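lol forgot to send this yesterday, sorry. struct tokens for the thing we talked abt
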């Protein structure tokens, strides 16, 4: 496997944290720390922070994303935000199918597929999250679970559109828990996802796909995780709220 075929992407997921003023301050702090990154740097922030984040990041190498989007372009969906709306404010990326959306807000593989479709139609790049619960890992069905999630989410996605998809393997038991998958576990599942993508689109498309690991990645464990042949970056929750920690991860991905 040739890692030079794809660019590493380090993406922060701020979840429900930071006011617009705090978002601006954190991005101002991050900018000089990540300016020489040899990887793509993305911050996915709450909807209300998007404008402040776009302004604060202007002219820098930090790109801004949202944490979800609805599948319809517009309509009677109180409280929702469409992919078209995100594109209109200047957002480039959107996380789809994060396990917190699946667990707490009723997202299913089918709604994830619809959100992916809408995001791609709007011209966004998708960070598609897949991952197993602890019980599923213990049952030995991790590969089946992530394969199914990947196949359903990519249903109807063309090979050309796949170039705007990043997959984040996030074992649910490792998110926000401080419990990280070992580098071997992360690589094994990332490779399994790449193999599934190869069956759908061919090996060349699979080799070009960025597959991140996410789940308690931090300044201490990032280097080992990111050194794995099939780990092409990270989706970072907690550690993306601290400029110093996030920049260490960005540096580790730039090696
Ligand atoms: C996440 O929210 O995608 C995540 C990986 O969180 P954390 O890094 O805090 O585990």
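and heres what i got for the seq, position by position
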């Amino acid at each position: 496997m040739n890692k030079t075929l794809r660019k590493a992407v380090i993406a922060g997921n701020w979840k429900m944290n930071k006011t617009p003023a705090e978002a601006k301050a954190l991005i101002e702090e991050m900018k000089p720390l990540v300016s020489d990154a040899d990887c793509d740097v993305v911050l996915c922030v709450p909807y209300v922070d998007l404008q402040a984040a776009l302004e604060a990041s202007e002219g820098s190498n930090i790109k801004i994303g949202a944490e979800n989007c609805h599948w319809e372009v517009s309509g009677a969906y109180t409280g929702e935000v469409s992919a078209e709306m995100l594109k209109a404010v200047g957002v480039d990326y959107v996380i789809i199918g994060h396990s917190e959306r699946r667990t707490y807000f009723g997202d299913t593989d089918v709604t994830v597929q619809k959100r992916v479709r809408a995001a791609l139609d709007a011209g966004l790049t998708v960070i598609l999250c897949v991952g197993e619960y602890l019980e599923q890992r213990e049952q030995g069905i991790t590969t089946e679970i992530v394969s199914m999630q990947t196949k359903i989410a990519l249903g109807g996605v063309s090979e050309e559109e796949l170039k705007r998809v990043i997959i984040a393997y996030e074992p649910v038991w490792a998110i926000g828990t401080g419990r990280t998958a070992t580098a071997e576990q992360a690589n094994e599942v990332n490779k399994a996802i790449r193999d599934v993508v190869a069956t759908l689109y061919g090996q060349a498309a699979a080799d070009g796909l960025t597959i991140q690991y996410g789940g308690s990645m931090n300044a201490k464990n990032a280097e080992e995780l990111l050194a794995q042949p099939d780990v092409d970056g990270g989706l970072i929750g907690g550690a993306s709220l601290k400029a110093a920690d996030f920049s260490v991860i960005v540096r580790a991905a730039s090696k």
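The domain at 9-253 is CATH 3.20.20.70 (TIM Barrel). anyway ping me if u want another try
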